[in-house]
User: Fold these one by one.
Assistant:
Number 1:
Amino acid sequence: MMFRRRSTHGRREDAARTWAVCSVLLDYPTEELVSSLDELEALVADDPHLVPLIDHVRGRTLAELQQDYVATFDHTRKCALYLTYFAYGDTRRRGAALVAFKEAYRRGGVEWSEEHGELPDHLCAVLQFGATVDVAIARQLLEDHRAGVEMLRIALAGWRNDDGSVGSPWAGALAAVSGTLRELAGDEAEAVRRLVEQGPPAEEVGLSGYGADPALSTGPALISTATIPVGAPR
């Protein structure tokens, strides 16, 4: 995918740049990611969180990166990249929350593309949407799930590596994203505390209701000016 940058200024431009880079670094590692590292670093050359992560990616083979990525994000529920998971777990209420993400993308003039095989609340997708389509709508989605973003940051910061060290390399990306958002306070801080102690809701019902929701079948599969794929630059 190529980033289609909108003209923005100040903090909006800084956030969009950070989100663009994080959307790539937090996705499954590919040859395209490895080949784009110089370009990514040029966008965030002074970022104290992202430059070390980019250096880490440079210092590993693709096979090592992919193995570590799967162990971190696919095999551990506390490091899920799906924002609604932290608020709703695998409960029926999560289906409605996923519909809200698709509707938010539609308000930005794009349609979520099912062909990529991802759910619309994937953090990479939200960041990519904000970087390439609409900063304000993406920010609202992130702020609405601020506790989940913070929970993921905490989980990655406390990740225990095989060599006994603490902290996932990908923690830098979440720190960078968090730095573009407002500080947690009040009820949100309490929500994070509960998530740390109890984890997401555990009612195991799957997401069959999500696919059956009538709101998901309105309109053509692809409309307007763009779709929101998930992945490294193509």
Number 2:
Amino acid sequence: MKSNGLLSILTFSEKRKDLLFLIQESPRTLSDIKEYFSVRSPEILPRLKEMENANLIFRQEGMYWLTPLGKVSAMYFRPFLDTLAAIEANENFWKEHDLTGVPETLLNRIQELKECRVVRDEHENIYDSHKTFIENVQSSTRLMGFASIFLPHYPQMFLDVARKGIPISIIVTPNVFFKLKSEYNTEIEEYLEYKNTSFYVYDNARVAFIVTDRFTSLSLFYKNGTFDPRNDLVGFDALAIKWGDDLFKHYKENSVEIKNL
């Protein structure tokens, strides 16, 4: 059954939704609106009338304004749409993986990842994608990461970053820590000597990620408990990087710092 209420006014028409956000930016004349949408009066006036009747906008001295109800609707409707966009853009990633490694406070901010996309390592192109990842890491001016799985190339990569004087902070789980301590003791001891480094151990979590000043890269486990090494959610915009920073802060606050072996 088709709804005739306020929800239908905004969800059943892209034009009405866009009008709401356009007038939210600033009051507009009819000419402004027609120019923005590249339409004639007969095409846009019915949409404006519908929104006036729904008490979302009003006209005063030739300008269309948001009503108090319109302001509230716009304020809460945009995050809702951004949340749906973030989920739909990478629907399989969110659907197939265990999300327990992402704290609820950050999952509630999933709309901040709407510009992120899944980077998949295909077997035939795995060298190229890894090379691109390393280049992005090496061109960063800071680096923070969480490792719940062990990758052989990471100890040397992180040590190379530390040697350049780049601020770097790494959190690992106990299993990864004991692996590093037993097989990469020399590299870890050198890493800890630098003033620009920090090293932590967190009890356990089903997540792995890296965040720099350039990008955030998030890896998760499948629901069956196995780590997914081929699909990373990667974002280069400021919102995704801030989200990654806050994810790292969450784990750091509950970690034990390792200052020497």
Number 3:
Amino acid sequence: MARGENNVRYTQASPARAATAVYVTLTAQVLSLGALVIFEQSMGRELAARLAAFGGRPVGADAEAVVGAVTTFAVLMMTVAGTSIAAAAAYVTWLVRARQANDRSAATGPVAAAWLVPGLNLFAPAVLVDEVWRGTRPPAGRRGRWLALLTGWWLSWLATLALVTIRLPLNSSAGGLTGVGAPELVCSLVAALLCAGTVRELTRLQREARDARLPGTAPAFAAAPAAPGAEASPPATISASATVPSSATVPSSATVSPPATISPPSSFSPSAVIEGPLATDSH
């Protein structure tokens, strides 16, 4: 696989956008639950009493008197359910991408099993999140702070789950519509804030690790420094006259000296040449 394709896959696996979705859906969930609590505390008992007096099926003028309140209550319940499902989906998506940001071959099956298997979902999601944190190889000294944040989030989430699944059914005889109140809202708010804190911490660590692995961030190679007191030699240059000329041409920079001339001896004369042999014959 080409290097560019690896970079594209790694960018797609980045959990930054999924983390933003977690923040948005958690905020919507807390706001919708807060609106339901306000409605419950202000109109819940009265509306529940009217519905009980009408036998649960008001008709005629009685129906018109409560139809607005019943519609509002139904819309609030659907909003709370919808934002809760959206928050769960966003968080699972973020957790899958966070695991794949550390290991691209990480499967999605363990995440689904950790949240859906009864009994296992009481501790497995927190274990998976801690595994992702350790996979980012964070700097030393952050382990204690991280464990405190993770433990606070998970305990507040378990408290919210206990209030919704245990306290509300037991409190259904109090005369309200759902029984939801301030304890559920406070626990949900604390759990949402701590959950967002864990997501933000992990996303920041993975962003730092990704930036450190991006090409072009490594320092350039520098020449070795010269020894103290030594003079730096200038860089070698190649001149045009250093080129080797071909056998057929003479380089322009070369100079051709004229051929040497042989001058005759100063004492040479024709008479000396003639007189020499004649003088010999005469003897």
Number 4:
Amino acid sequence: MSALPPKQRLGHLLRSLSKHLPGQLDGLLENARFNDGAAALQRLAEPAHVENALARMSPEEASWLADQLTERWSWIAGVQLEPEVAIVVPEEIWVGSEPIRLPLSLAAVGLDEGFEAVWEGAVLPGPPSSKATLHAKPPEGKAPGVARIRAQVRASVKGQRCVLIAQAQVALRRPSVVVSDDRRRLLAQDQTGRPAVGCRLEIGPEVHRTGPGGLVELEVPAQPGVSLKLEGIPAGRIPGGNP
């Protein structure tokens, strides 16, 4: 079984920590000296608090923090993880004028082999399986686009049957490139105006990586009519050439 994605892994670790650590400390948290720590553990048991914290983190930050917490928990007591399942899918994908299909799979912790799931949401129909196919339609207008996915997982833990729910949502971004009048500054963004930072921008045969604010600055003006692609998705042409 594969590892959970970074943010799901951290959320799972925090839920397991808040459930098992108080008992492992054998009443120690009742001492007034540890009031702050007890309050912190109580906050970790609140789903909304954890979700808000995870939303502000990058996957790299979540992975680092999960490693740190796992190590420090092991200093105090044995790490005890609850059964968990998560949908493995990117946080965002770029979509052009046509729908995109993307393979989906499940990552699990603490489940016996042979689990399967009934998939719902933005997926192609199919029989119960541990895998599915995301079917993401292009977002319309300037509104944010989101594909929501849900999997009802039928599994067993140490021989005992159980049902777990995994949910995920993917931000759908349609590419747009704004070109300055001198054709030397190109601003890559999505349909909402959110900058495309650190993305691959193809200007004809040349490949660039967008910088802060989604900006690419050229030493020489781009040729009129040259095609533009953002993350491999067509995003128009440099103005001034033949369509």
